[in-house]
Amino acid sequence: MHLNIRRLLSIVAFIAFIAIAPVIVLYAIGYRSVSTSLPEPVGVAIINALPKKAVVSINGTAYGTVPRSVPNLLPGTVEVQVAKDGYQPWQKKLEIKPMQATDARNIKLIPTTQDTDELTADATAFATSPDASIIAIVNAKNEIFFMDQNGKFKTNSIAFKSPITEMVWSNDSSRVLIGTKQSGFTLLQFSNQAITKSAFVLPATDTRAKWDPADNQSILALTSKHELVRYNITTSTSAIIDSNCNTYTFSNNQLIYQRIDNTLVKGSFSQDLNQRALSISASVNGDLAILLESGELLIVDTRNTINSISGHVLSSSWSTDGSLLLLQSSPSELDIYNFSNERMRTLPIHESHVLVRLATTILNPSWFPDNAHIVYQTGSNLILSEVDPRDYVISTKIADLPQQTQNNIWIAKDMNSLIHITQAGNTTNLIRTWLVTKDDR
């Protein structure tokens, strides 16, 4: 080919590259051509849900099963639906923003009809072991026995004269401290699918008994004289930790307590809170939520900085990852406070929003294992509500409970089932309610 022709072709190719390259770059970073000649930025939706194989649709167009990333969405409001046969569909209007990812990653579909398994009849209370392998159950005769979750074994029963009020499992799931209304605390030991009474007992005047998380042989309790005492169950000896204690808890194996002069003691750190603390709860990260008798809620972070986040709450609980707080601000209202969750774009850090406000009383609010839902009782209904406030908060009934009673709920870590007590005629039974269909178990 002639030299001049090659030069001409090179010049033409260079000019074409200069003209096309910006278009390629704009396309790569998310711009698409619309009705005008100017490119418009687009966004992406990231959707995930349980159970698996649920189908994602946006504005009526199906995009496949979860987890699903849907690119090239024009900015504006879209209607997202996640559905699967046998389940109630999830549907919300979400805003797509240019050059951003809009996500809904913690969707939980609930079966249209929940299946239940009766674990045992005539149960009035229960407590599941820390390793989730054993359940301690109290019946209407004030007898206690143990069984596994699949009914493969059931131990002997032990009767108590005074009504059983507490069941506190040891960290290694081998012992249960049984609190009674009049007779104090008795220790039961579990071995070889049988339970026996230990010689170790705590006085009836002791309260707030807890196992030391760093020592399976030690139990702490408060005496009627405000003494914080450590008991050794092997030697049956005791030692006073502090003679003027109001309340206490553990955080990452560290003992934290408040003296009756209102001083908070946390290792070498101490601070006068000016009020008596009704409760102290620690997050998995070591931050503290302290509810004062006035209803004010304080946060003490790991740097020992103290901040007031609410002037009046009835109770609070940390999410399992320690980034959010569930607040019950009135008998019929639940709020969410964002302590440190940077991924929760709908609620800025250190702000709160109303999650649920009902005309009926809310009982036993607690976190679902995914940190994205809460469960609570209203009337005879156990409700699952998502934390995501966009569009509207989706709430779903997941179980029937005895009317307006304090009811313990245990939720499996895989979120496929929960164990609770339900009413059956004149008796109450312990049952498992499935949160997935048989095909997804």
Secondary structure: elements and pairs:
Blueprint: H1 3-28, E1 31-33, E2 39-41, E3 43-50, E4 55-58, E5 61-65, E6 68-73, E7 76-83, E8 90-96, E9 101-108, E10 116-120, E11 123-128, E12 134-139, E13 143-148, E14 158-159, E15 164-169, E16 175-180, E17 184-191, E18 194-202, E19 207-211, E20 218-222, E21 228-232, E22 237-242, E23 245-251, E24 254-259, E25 263-266, E26 269-272, E27 277-282, E28 288-292, E29 297-300, E30 306-310, E31 315-318, E32 324-330, E33 333-338, E34 352-357, E35 363-367, E36 373-378, E37 381-386, E38 395-400, E39 410-411, E40 417-424, E41 427-434
Parallel strand pairs: 3-9
Antiparallel strand pairs: 1-2, 3-6, 4-5, 4-7, 7-8, 10-41, 11-12, 12-13, 13-14, 15-16, 16-17, 17-18, 19-20, 20-21, 21-22, 23-24, 24-25, 25-26, 27-28, 28-29, 29-30, 31-32, 32-33, 33-34, 35-36, 36-37, 37-38, 39-40, 40-41
| Envelope shape | globular
Number of helices: 1
Pick out the low-confidence regions: none
CATH superfamily of the domain at 42-108: Immunoglobulins
Helix content: under 10%
Rg estimate, integer Å: 28 Å
* Largest sheet geometry: 4 strands, antiparallel
Chain-averaged pLDDT: 91
Regarding quaternary structure, how should these chains be classified?
single chain
CATH class of the domain at 42-108: Mainly Beta
Distance between the termini: 71 Å
Q: State the strand order across the main sheet.
A: 5-4-7-8
Tell me how many strands there are.
Answer: 41
Structural class: mainly beta
Strand content: over 45%
> Which architecture name of the domain at 42-108 does CATH use?
Sandwich
**CATH fold name of the domain at 42-108:** Immunoglobulin-like
